[in-house]
Structure formats: structure tokens, C-alpha cells
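Thread: sanity check for a docking pose with NAP

Original post by kr_44:
Hi all, I'm comparing my docking run against an independent structure prediction. Below are the sequence and the ligand SMILES. Could someone generate the full complex and paste the C-alpha cells? I mainly care about where the ligand ends up relative to the chain.
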Amino acid sequence: MLNLSTKRVCVTGGGGFLGSFLCGKLSARGVKDIFVPRRRDYDLTTEAGIEKLFRDARPEVLFHLAAVVGGIGANLESPGRFFYENAIMGIQLIEAARRYAVEKTIVAGTICAYPKFTPAPFREETLWDGYPEETNAPYGIAKKALLVQCQAYRQQYGMNAIYLLPVNLYGMRDNFDLESSHVIPALIRKCIEARDRGDKSIVCWGDGTATREFLFVEDAADGLLAAAEKYDGAEPVNLGSGAEITIKDLVHTVARACNFTGEILWDTSRPNGQPRRLLDTSRAENWFGFRANTLLDEGLLKTVQWYEQTCGRVKTHTRTRRTIRSMASLGSAELSCFGSSDKAAC
Ligand SMILES: NC(=O)c1ccc[n+]([C@@H]2O[C@H](COP(=O)([O-])OP(=O)(O)OC[C@H]3O[C@@H](n4cnc5c(N)ncnc54)[C@H](OP(=O)(O)O)[C@@H]3O)[C@@H](O)[C@H]2O)c1
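Reply from moderator J.T.:
Ran it for you. Here is the predicted complex with NAP included:
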């Protein structure tokens, strides 16, 4: 078992949603040396940014979480950027980790890499059985290329790089920007704003029949840590909760958690995305003892409470993730000074 507490650890994307929880948990594990390269100081799409990072951080353990991420809308709007930036960042970073002899590299992939019509639950063995769902294929394939790189580098150079496939995440400090967020934060914000305006209905994308699986962000961070400590294999591993829910049921659950009692309407001209998403989580459990322990209802309540406490007092309708993260670290008196110009870049 790898003892992280004695290592110099670098977390790319450590200022992000998942990364911030991972850093908190690393710190709680006793890791003293945690380096988080922010994009404004280390642009990891550039070789110069990557070289500077390795010179400054000299990591022994590297978590690669930095990515350009978003929901269906953001993926449809910027497929080229999602492909290029995710591919170039990961490829250069893993190559640098090899050259700088990093002891262990943990790469976050995504289940958007799975084929569109994979039989559910998705087993890691089926990852290459078809083309991903079109709306997020550029993102999914860019990240899947990093799995090939990890396996090739393990084979040729003996590099210890592992690859994990987290399912859709949700939780506190998520991206609540309606244009670029994932389904749960978008729904929470929609329901709360509709409730506060007294709207009689909200409109959701698709027809509600698609299914999804969600993992609470704190559980995902636990999964990354467990894998870093106990897993040293070439095979990719799913990180999920193993619980499937239809979008229709999800919308009703979120509406309840937000006390929104209006009608739910469906815009069927909008895409559903991948028809089913459910992971087989047995590898994670058998290979490094990871099991998610937060139920969706429980995680949603925590997330809604966090959102209401942190963001409820800000009036702007173009609040963004960076704004919200900034707010999380400030006293309530300072909240109103954030305006719509603080637009998140991802
Ligand atoms: N969220 C999900 O549902 C989900 C599901 C499956 C897998 N994942 C994977 O989990 C990882 C973390 O996702 P997340 O939701 O936490 O994303 P996030 O909140 O958007 O965080 C991503 C981070 O990447 C950093 N980044 C982006 N471009 C960069 C660049 N050019 N140079 C340096 N840093 C850059 C950003 O740094 P700054 O903050 O400094 O700008 C940001 O903090 C990603 O690899 C994602 O693919 C996420």
C-alpha cells in the first residue's frame, strides 16, 4: 500500500470541483506537500506550463484531474476545444511524468468514453466495443486516448500509471452555470430559481427516459485515494455508485429536495444523451475495496443546502462556478460584490 503522507503530491485540477475535495482528503490523510497548479499560472495545454509545473512541484505522486468539462450543451458548442485541450493536456503531462520519473500517476477518465450502446451495467472490458454517444464523443475519446498512453507507457517504460472512470459526479462546489453545468446542478438551480420566482413550471431537456448514475463528489475523492493507495494495474477501473435512476425520477427527486412544487415539462426537441448509464463497480470493490456510501437523496440534500446557503443571497442570474467557489471561501457580507462578468472559462 502506498503511503501518501510522505510523498510530494501534485493534483492538476486541484482547484476544481472534484480536485478540491481530493486535496481536502489528502490533507486529512496527513499529506503535507500538496501542489495545485492553477491554469492562470500553469497552462497545461502548453509545454512551457507543463515543464514549469514539474520543475516547481517535483511530484512523486501525480493526480491528473485537470480537464475541460461540461454538460451536453457545452460539449455540443465546443467539441473541438473539448477534444484538443483534454487530449493535449493529458498526453503532454503523462509524457512529462515519465521523463521526471514520477512514482505513481493517477489519471481521471470519464464514462463518456463508453460506447453509446454498451449493455448496462457498463463493464470495463466493453470500453472499445463501439463509438461513444455523439454529443460527448470528442471529450470521451480525448480522455480514452490517455488510457492507451498509460498502458503503453507501463508496457514500454514500466511506468506506474493507473486510469479510473468516474461516473457523473454531483455535490457541493459543483458548476451551477446553466450554460455549462451537468444535469444535477442545472436542475437544482432551475428548481430553486423557479420556486423563488413563483413559476408554475420548469422545462427539462429530452423526454426523461434516459437513465443515469451519480456519484457524490466526496465518495469519488475517496475512490481516487483508495486507488492511489492500493491499485497498481494496467486495467481501467469504473468509479460509481452502482445505482441507476431515470432522468424523470431524478427531476422529481431534485424538485422535492428544492421544495419546487410546479409542473415539469419536457422539451423533446432537445437530445436525451446516452440512453442508459450504469456502471459495473465490482472491479473497484474487489481490487481496492472502494464502495460509494452516500445515497442519492442524502447527497442531493447536502448539495441543495450548500447551494442555498452559499449562493441563495446573490441576485445575479449569471452566477458562475468560479464565482460560487470564490463565495464559498468568503463571509456572507462579501457575496454581493460578485457580478456576471466573472464568467467561468470551462
Ligand atoms: N464532474 C464530473 O461529473 C466528472 C465525471 C467524470 C469524470 N470527471 C473528471 O474528473 C476530473 C475533474 O472534473 P471536475 O468536474 O472537477 O472539473 P472542474 O471543476 O472543471 O475542474 C477542472 C480543473 O481543470 C483545470 N484546468 C482546465 N484547463 C486547464 C489548463 N489548460 N491548465 C491547467 N489547469 C486546467 C481548471 O483549473 P483552474 O481552476 O485553475 O482554472 C479546473 O480547476 C476531470 O478530469 C473530469 O474529466 C468529472
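Residues 214 and 296 are 7 Å apart (CA to CA). Hope that helps with the comparison, let us know if your pose agrees.
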